[in-house]
Design brief:
Layout lengths: L10 H14 L1 H7 L4 H22 L6 H21 L7 H11 L3 H16 L6 H23 L5 H20 L1 H6 L7 H6 L4 H5 L5 H21 L8 H23 L13 H18 L1
Helix pairs in contact: 1-2, 1-3, 2-13, 3-5, 3-6, 3-7, 4-5, 4-6, 6-7, 7-8, 8-12, 8-13, 12-13, 13-14
Length: 294
């Protein structure tokens, strides 16, 4: 198969993909800079497809729920046909199909992503963590699983750790965005766990931060940290030239949990984020840590 990164026909689409990840995912863009060129470009393409699908719900325009579901169906149909023939005139699906074919990425991951976004369209509450895990797997873990084929691996166990890292990152997103999500009518925190901590939907809607809510957020944060810790065992299983970028991404994204802790777990106070200077500090410290390990 012809290397798409050598084909000038696809250069505009790759540049567009780069602009998408640079705008929407600064942390991932930051970490991906440390990947070899082809892996980096493939990462841009994978992310731009995922962002395109995700934006159908995140930026619904004036479309009804039925129309948005139909839009997801149309993407799934075009993806199926594109996978059959190895081509598409769609500006995002076309280059995406070329990349997954080149790297042997199962198309089922893309279908799972679409169904995860559909869940986000049709559900605004999750009764328990099992239900939430399914959502997190579909919208986040499958992204990491697709990425793993680009990063390179030999041991199938690597995919288990990639799934865990995706769960950790999505749980982090949920904690970071509690205030924003409740404004949009969504509560992703497991309802049965809220009841266990005697927290109501009204507590979240009215931003009632107190000791019981703080303890609840600590519990949620610790679960995300556990997934991060468990996922680390998968990084040494990746190709050597991919490890630093993924460990950097893990450290930067898990740093959001540290920023939430600095807010005394008051997720209503402000949106937690890792500053550019902090990201640079993380990268430098990890770079020298890796050198000392050699």
């Amino acid at each position: 198969m012809k290397d798409i990164f050598e084909d000038p026909l696809f250069l505009p689409f790759i540049k567009f993909s780069k602009s998408i990840i640079k705008y929407y995912a600064k942390s991932f863009y930051f970490a991906s800079a440390f990947l070899p060129k082809r892996k980096k470009l493939a990462t841009y393409v994978i992310y731009s497809f995922c962002r395109y699908v995700d934006n159908i719900i995140d930026k619904p325009r004036l479309r009804s729920k039925e129309e948005l579901n139909n839009e997801l169906d149309s993407i799934k149909t075009e993806l199926s046909i594109a996978n059959k023939y190895g081509e598409s005139e769609h500006p995002i699906i076309g280059i995406f199909i070329k990349v997954i074919k080149q790297y042997g990425i199962p198309i089922e991951y893309a279908f799972d992503l679409i169904e995860g976004v559909r869940m986000d369209l049709n559900y605004d509450r999750y009764e328990n963590f099992d239900d939430l895990y399914k959502f997190c797997y579909r919208v986040a873990s499958v992204v990491g699983l697709m990425m793993t084929f680009i990063l390179g691996f030999k041991n199938q166990k690597t995919l288990i750790y990639a799934e865990k890292l995706g769960i950790a990152m999505q749980l982090t997103n949920i904690l970071r965005d509690i205030k924003e999500d409740k404004v949009n009518g969504k509560i992703y925190l497991p309802m049965d766990e809220m009841r266990a901590y005697n927290i109501t939907e009204e507590d979240i809607i009215n931003e009632n931060f107190n000791e019981k809510f703080k303890n609840f957020i600590i519990f949620q944060s610790n679960r995300a940290k556990t997934f991060y810790e468990e996922s680390k065992d998968g990084i040494p299983l990746l190709d050597k030239d991919s490890r630093f970028a993924i460990y950097a991404a893990l450290k930067i994204y898990s740093g959001i949990l540290q920023e939430i802790e600095k807010l005394d777990y008051n997720v209503f106070k402000q949106r937690a984020y890792v500053s550019t200077s902090k990201k640079i500090s993380i990268l430098v410290s990890e770079y020298f840590r890796n050198i000392l390990k050699k």
